[in-house]
Amino acid sequence: MIYVEFIDRDSTIPIEVFRQIGNQQSAWAEGAGDRMILQLGRTLRLGPKPSYLCFWEISGIGRLDAWEEYFHSAAAVRNPRSQAMHRAIRIERAGIYDLLCRGPSLEMPLYVVHYCESTLVTDGELSKAYEDCIQMNPDVSPILLLRRLGRAGPDPGLLSIWGARSYVALEPLLRREAPSAWNVVDLGVYRAFGEEVL
Question: Three-state SS for 151?
Fold first, then answer.
């Protein structure tokens, strides 16, 4: 299961401070078993706001119970890293997603996120359409295919994430019509957090 944070920054905070404090590479709490697998920043203003996405791999929805317990504890109040981060970044929204497909590597110089309203119903249908899209776009790498858990997250409910080495490699994916079953309603171009161009 993947928990996605949709983040923006307070423009009164210098970008250097935001990038330093907002970098979520380190564990958010001592002993936390959650794993941040991807943190992206919209680059060259190509895509929707909020401008930042952070993807957490969690063991299951029960982790949310543990998070709430932690954030109500004295340990959370004493955690200066967590306190500073929540003052420096604005988590506008979050969503819970089932992981349908994961590429062999998550690290790429550029990322494209398709925000989709899929007409496909089953996970098998979605995975098959994703495989077809992979075959049609050999210059990009599949990263993640995520389906929102019910209504637990913002619209649209399907995120299809791709990686590429350059804008030239991305061009065919950007020009080609996505499969009609995807119904792409928005698209964003991102780099790894801290490498984005504002």
Answer: coil
